[in-house]
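Hey,
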Amino acid sequence: MAVPFARIGRFPRPDHTPYRRLSTVYPLPEPFALRDRTDTDQAFVQALYASTREDLRQALPDPAQLLPLLAMQQNAQEAGFRRQFPEARQWLLLRSGLPIGRVVVDAAAQDLRVVDIAIVPEARRSGAATAVLQALQAHALAQGLPLCLAVAHGNHAAQSLYRRLGFATTSEDGTHAQMVWRGEHA
């Protein structure tokens, strides 16, 4: 089900009951928490994806052209995640019980990888991504694993955040930089 164009930029609340803080896999400081993504979250995830694709919104201002392209691109992204990281888990990032983002994490034997992290525009620079990344760093450190991620060259805000949290660039290609955080024991 496509998100109507008028709703792009607004983030629908999923239809199910609130999360239980103690059941989150990576504990986050209040007011943040993670909960498993479910099928009922699809409208939120679509709107979130649309909010990350300002490039497409500028290229195709006509909703009749934009909505199918956004849906196709999101489906391709999801399929790519499943193909490349079949064991990855997806969570919704919550603030005070309401969804503000999505996190995809792959826990492999050799590393913990942030496959994707996206935050709604209204919640960016609120400490949400920092809270998630620091929780993942604590888990990676406890497991003796590096924490890895890729960041687009044009995503300067994310690059700055990652560097501030101690990530270092290990390689680059034409579109992304691979970054790793090793902590004390990883």
